[in-house]
């Protein structure tokens, strides 16, 4: 494959890791951070691929800057952020599509704990777009013997899988922090996936996407790894640490903290039952203890599976 020019927007843990994967495959990678020397305009000017890995709070401000910059008419925008916009509850790809007009937008998501990928451990991911040619181009850029990339035609489903599992990862951390055992964890993840599918299908995503790498795959990785920041938030809440203290010590962003409130807002307006996410919301705003959240979930009215 001919070398491609990539602009990676956001030099945090995930942006740097994705930049390294592409550079390792011989592509020309230019990394932009708001603290760096190179301007965003210079970084994106001749890029064939613009890859955004800024955390959710940066997506709207950065996308609105990119909208006003000259970029190639054939550029492809790749979004790797896992979050929801607090203003509109929309996913990052919606904001990016607005900013780049009719250029293709590709969503990249999967079970991808960056520290494992940095160590050269094998991993797989998904690139999804309604423009399948664009997804295949991005697949070619990132694929290697250590990083297996699948294409998918359901960008919303792929994006929601990666985003909603962060809420479940907080719950999974609580489950492990309280030492509730393997049965409880399996029940939590299974019912958590049902919750993700309930709201995801209402949103317009395809149910089967949630059983793939970006849904179930990322749920398993994030809910079982102390490397996950979202899992760490839940685990430490169960160990009686306060949220501000946990977040102050956390390495990087735990998107699930903000996603939970946005998700619950949408679920309320759409009248969708999200019992696990609801308890995570109460825990995060400090109005319930981890043990009380467990009791509330176990004490719900009996119902068919
Ligand atoms: N780390 C991982 O394993 C994975 C992370 N992700 C997702 O990728 C996204 C980024 O995660 P990660 O790299 O770990 O997080 P980090 O906290 O390490 O990095 C966040 C990045 O966002 C940038 N940023 C935040 N706010 C703004 C803003 N207002 N304007 C410009 N840039 C901003 C930061 O810039 P600055 O450095 O200038 O502050 C930084 O580059 C998240 O949505 C996460 O869920 C997805 C898969 C794996
Ligand atoms: O999304 C991730 C792995 O796929 C990273 O998880 P955390 O953001 O919880 O660290």
TrEMBL record:
Substrate binds at residues 82, 229-230. Its EC number is 1.1.1.94. GO terms for biological process: carbohydrate metabolic process; glycerol-3-phosphate biosynthetic process; glycerol-3-phosphate catabolic process; glycerophospholipid metabolic process; phospholipid biosynthetic process. It comes from the Bacteria. InterPro entries: 6-PGluconate_DH-like_C_sf, 6PGD_dom2, G3P_DH_NAD-dep, G3P_DH_NAD-dep_C, G3P_DH_NAD-dep_N, NAD(P)-bd_dom_sf. Sn-glycerol 3-phosphate binds at residues 82, 110, 165, 218, 228-230. Residues 154-294 form the Glycerol-3-phosphate dehydrogenase NAD-dependent C-terminal domain. It catalyses: sn-glycerol 3-phosphate + NADP(+) = dihydroxyacetone phosphate + NADPH + H(+); sn-glycerol 3-phosphate + NAD(+) = dihydroxyacetone phosphate + NADH + H(+). Residues 6-35, 39-131 form the Glycerol-3-phosphate dehydrogenase NAD-dependent N-terminal domain. GO terms for cellular component: cytosol. It is an enzyme of class 1 (oxidoreductase). NADPH binds at residues 14, 34-35, 82, 114, 229, 255. GO terms for molecular function: glycerol-3-phosphate dehydrogenase [NAD(P)+] activity; NAD binding. The active site is at residue 165. Gene3D superfamilies: N-(1-d-carboxylethyl)-l-norvaline Dehydrogenase, domain 2, NAD(P)-binding Rossmann-like Domain. NAD(+) binds at residues 10-15, 229. Its main location: cytoplasm. SUPFAM superfamilies: 6-phosphogluconate dehydrogenase C-terminal domain-like, NAD(P)-binding Rossmann-fold domains. It holds the Pfam family NAD_Gly3P_dh_N. Pathway: Membrane lipid metabolism; glycerophospholipid metabolism. It is found in: Cytoplasm. Belongs to the NAD-dependent glycerol-3-phosphate dehydrogenase family. PANTHER family: GLYCEROL-3-PHOSPHATE DEHYDROGENASE, GLYCEROL-3-PHOSPHATE DEHYDROGENASE [NAD(+)] 2, CHLOROPLASTIC. Catalyzes the reduction of the glycolytic intermediate dihydroxyacetone phosphate (DHAP) to sn-glycerol 3-phosphate (G3P), the key precursor for phospholipid synthesis. This is Glycerol-3-phosphate dehydrogenase [NAD(P)+]. It comes from Oxynema aestuarii AP17. The gene is gpsA.
């Amino acid at each position: 494959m001919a070398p491609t020019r990539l602009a990676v927007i956001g030099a945090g843990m995930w942006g740097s890791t994705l930049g390294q994967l592409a550079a390792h495959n011989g592509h020309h990678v230019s990394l932009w951070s708001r603290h760096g020397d190179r301007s965003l305009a210079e970084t994106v000017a001749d890029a064939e691929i613009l890859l955004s890995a800024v955390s959710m709070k940066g997506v709207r401000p950065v996308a609105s800057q990119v909208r006003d910059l000259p970029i190639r008419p054939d550029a492809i925008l790749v979004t790797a952020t896992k979050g929801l916009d607090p203003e509109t509850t929309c996913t990052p790809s919606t904001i990016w599509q607005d900013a780049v007009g009719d250029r293709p937008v590709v969503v990249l998501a999967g079970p991808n704990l960056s520290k494992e990928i940095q160590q050269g451990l094998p991993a797989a991911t998904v690139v999804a777009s309604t423009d399948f040619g664009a997804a295949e181009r991005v697949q070619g850029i990132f694929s290697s013997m250590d990083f297996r990339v699948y294409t998918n035609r359901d960008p919303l489903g792929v994006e929601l899988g990666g985003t909603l599992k962060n809420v479940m990862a907080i719950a999974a951390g609580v489950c492990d922090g309280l030492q509730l055992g393997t049965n409880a964890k399996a029940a939590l993840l299974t019912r958590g996936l049902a919750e993700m599918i309930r709201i995801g299908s209402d949103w317009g995503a395809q149910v089967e996407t949630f059983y793939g790498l970006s849904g179930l795959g990322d749920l398993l990785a994030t809910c079982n790894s102390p490397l996950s920041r979202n899992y760490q938030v839940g685990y430490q809440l169960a160990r009686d640490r306060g949220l501000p203290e946990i977040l102050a010590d956390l390495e990087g962003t735990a998107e699930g903290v903000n996603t939970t409130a946005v998700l619950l807002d949408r679920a309320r307006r759409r009248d969708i039952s999200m019992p696990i996410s609801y308890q995570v919301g109460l825990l995060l705003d400090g109005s319930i203890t981890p043990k009380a959240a467990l009791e509330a979930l176990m004490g719900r009215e009996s119902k068919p599976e």
